[in-house]
Amino acid sequence: MLVDLHMHTTCSDGVYTPEQLTRMAVDAKLSVMAISDHDTVAAYDGSHSFAPGVRVIPAIEISSECDGEDVHILGYGIDTADEGLQAYCAQFKERRFNRALEIVDRCRALGYDIDRSAIEATLRQGGTVGRPHIARQLVAKGYFPDVKTVFDKLLYRGGPAYVPYHRRSIDDCVALIRQAGGIAVLAHPGLLKRTLDQVLAHDFDGVEVYHPKNRGRYKEFLKLAEDRHWYVSGGSDFHGTTGRFPEKVGVFTVDAQAVKALLNDVKG
């Protein structure tokens, strides 16, 4: 059986709706998937219908940081109606929205002709907004060839149009996930360049071993999970963005046996 436990929809910065993504998962013959949108559980608010034929684990990807590096934490099997989680998502949604408007204003000041309307429309649809939304606008306007180039030139941390924002501590994020009945898993450790050792000092329940950015380091992260008695997870981090691997569902998958313990113990 094939699974993908890290996927994004239009409820955060993905290209496809939950309906489209689950149908694509079925077509790709995935048995289990997790919609893990950034700082939101809007995919599970009852307004979306998932395609039959695939098990969907309720999940979220929460944003934190350590010494200036982004640290993302996946929460699996969460109660998406948990009051604390709902409050967190509402607060973060507002912060993301205000930050996105600031980024648009910075882009305009730099001479890029984009406006706030697309950002406001996304918010009205119930989703959260972030840098990828703005990057796609800039690509659509012809200023850049792809989203990656926008990030490389404008939206990287400290870049000309970058706007910082406050995030909760790693321990607070882990506690929030556990309070909602979930399992807290460190996402894509291979992306951490300077702070991996510091981050690993925190009390996670698992680690995302299998991820496109971890390739070549699977054995290292598997041993880490084994030594700490942590759950093993894995997923494609699929967004559907042109130029960002993987561009199609099913290109990067995980064997269910590799994440068997997590699948057995997670709710949903």
Model description:
- By secondary structure, the chain is of the alpha/beta class.
- The chain has a domain at 2-79 and 183-265: TIM Barrel (Alpha-Beta Barrel), CATH 3.20.20.
- 35% of the residues lie in helices and 18% in strands.
- The chain has nine helices and eight strands.
- It has an eight-stranded mixed sheet.
- Helix 4 packs across helix 5.
- The mean pLDDT is 94.
Quick recap of the structure?
It holds the Pfam family PHP. With 268 residues, the protein is α/β, with parallel strands linked by helices.
Uncertain residue ranges: none
Please tally the β strands and state the result: 8
CATH topology of the domain at 2-79 and 183-265: TIM Barrel
Helix content percent band: 25-40%
Largest sheet: 8 strands, mixed
Q: Would you list the SSEs in sequence order as H and E?
A: EHEEEHHHHHEHEHEEH
